[in-house]
Specification:
The chain contains 21 helices and 10 strands. It folds into 3 domains: 3-361, no CATH class; 383-596, no CATH class; 628-681, no CATH class. It has helices spanning 11-18, 24-29, 51-57, 64-69, 79-89, 132-139, 201-210, 213-228, 330-338, 363-400, 402-405, 413-457, 474-549, 563-583, 588-596, 599-604, 610-615, 621-625, 636-640, 643-648, 650-666; strands at residues 3-5, 112-118, 122-123, 166-168, 191-197, 232-237, 245-257, 276-278, 292-306, 309-316. The protein is elongated and about 135 Å long. Helix 6 runs parallel beside helix 7 and helix 12 (413-457) packs antiparallel against helix 13. Strands 2, 3, 5, 6, 7, 8, 9 and 10 form an 8-stranded mixed sheet that branches. A two-stranded antiparallel ribbon has the order 1-4. A hairpin with a 2-residue loop joins strand 9 and strand 10. By secondary structure, it is an alpha+beta fold. 29% of the residues are buried. The chain crosses the membrane at residues 530-549, 561-581.
Amino acid sequence: MRYVVQPAPDQQELRALANVDSDLTLWSSSWLPEFNGPRDGFDYENENITYLTRQRRLGQEGDLAEVFMLDLDDTDGYSFQVDRVRSFLNGTTERTIRPDDAEDGTSLLYGAWLDERCYERGSRAYCNPLTAEGLSHQLTKPRFRRRRLDTKTSSNASTPPFFHGLRHQASIGSVGLRWALVPYHEPDAARRLIFITDLDSETATVLMKTASYHQARPLRHALYHHITSRALITVNISSRLPSNFELAFHMPFYAWRNSRREDHRTCTGGGPLRETLDVSFLNREREDPPQFLCKAHFTCVISGSDDRHWVAYFFADTYFDGQDEARETVHEYHKDKDTPEGMNADPLTYGNTDADVDPIWDPRKYFLTIFSYRLRRIAREWSQVVTRVEESVVGFRKSHDCLLSRPTDCRSSQEDAGHSANLLRYYDWVTQTDGTSMELEKTLGEMVDANEAWDIKYSAVFHGLPQSGDEPILLPEIKAIFDELKLLKKRLTGLRVKCKALSKKLALHLQLEGVNAGKTQNQQGRDNNYFSWIMMIYVSPMGFTISTFSMQTISFPHVGLMLPWFILLLSLFCSVGFLVHTTVFRRWPLVKSWISQLWILQLCIGKYDMPQLLRWSKKPLDDLEAGPPCVVTVDPSSCSGRCSEQETQGPSLRAVSSGLNIADQSVRRRSLPGVQVNGQA
């Protein structure tokens, strides 16, 4: 089989062949007419060829993640996406804690559900539940039976754009690329539904290996957004030929559970795919059982060529529910079908519709139906989370606000000792709560923002859907649920505001407690210093003196039991204690400052007269004498002549001038040392 490379036809000519308006804005904001019913000239048999087969035969090299995630004919493939998906594919899955293990104790892991049917010939045989290996076996079957297309109605529009320059040189009358197509007796899988619980690397590999060219791009988006857990609601209608539609929503949320449920899926680095937050600190005072926040994600992507031929993918995280809890697994849906009154519940719609009795063929209606039922579940989980956090904040504040309202003088000594520790624990609790609320607000805000963008850009795609009398109006219902989510986000925002205000208040109280503790420590230090003076100068010398006189006289033959000797020894010991205390403990600067402040001593030695001491009593003399002496030369005549200039030079200069005038008037014969007025010391 050989290929001949030919120049690609002009893009305008291709649009004319497909009868598509050239306005690209219309492509992304409205439903195209060719999506209604089977498309003439579209070669559906190309869906039997996998994307990887095409790329390998065209010479693209690399591992599975690189070949699948990088589309050489597209701009939506980036290296960081390849690295993220590769890290997930190379990770491991702890099978022993998988929540949907087989109940009979076998090692089979049933995590997939598949429904394939044709509008004209009905559904294929029921094969659920499926393991990853069983899903691979079903998806490798030809999706469409081999048929011969009329060459008159055939169009190059069915050829993927990557192969515009390739023409198949084979003796078949249809346009497209085929390898080893064999007759197949089952109905076509025109509508294919794939439901996966806790998507792991093995199941993701199966989906990537069996996806066709037209399904590769939407599956690429689904895998990346599900792995990264980002909120997004989008409608993509490709401007490339042949045109295809992609309806998708990616909704992250948190589930509040009373037991730890670690995600069994790990990436290359060893960390779990979904994080589990321990929030037991929120109810620490009430001694409630441990509380955990488990992050989860719902991904839904519907893609196809028209409303009779499309594929729906749905990935649901259910790891946070244990074996003894009401959890969603493919086993539960299978047991519902096996019961006498049971039905083949559609897991994509959360089991609310029957996949056999009334299958939904319109992809837009099916998308809104899935979105409505799943959004209700997400809203319930978010409501529980926000309510629990609010209750914890309110309860904790009621039990701890007394720490902020009780004055210091009303606390006992025991309460005062642990008051700072309680404030610090309260501050840590508020900080942790604010951090948790911030993460919740961020995730919920992404959902709300995604809805607003979707409502503005893509709501027109869903207008005009056929509606029966007993069916709910889906768009208003979805809007009402998002209004509830907006209110929940406002409540989280209010919690964060309260936490921030409370943290500021606690920080201020902690600072005040620190200041008070510093004052207390300083006072204790001064008290200890005074006590050491008393011990070294008074108590110890007295004790040494008494001990000396209580010794045998032979030890000190020249010392008699006389009062002069007692006073002499006491003075000697006091002097030694004074020298030791001032020299060894470096107390001499403090002693010097004390001596300098003894005014009566300064008065006796004639350093200052009484009027000066009274005038300068408001300011310590050591402040005036500190530093080298300053010399200020003042001309009285010049001072009096510049009064008007001083008025314009501000209060600082006026204050200096007034101070100098006072010094000139008061210090005539005997001024402070180091100050000279008019050249006189």
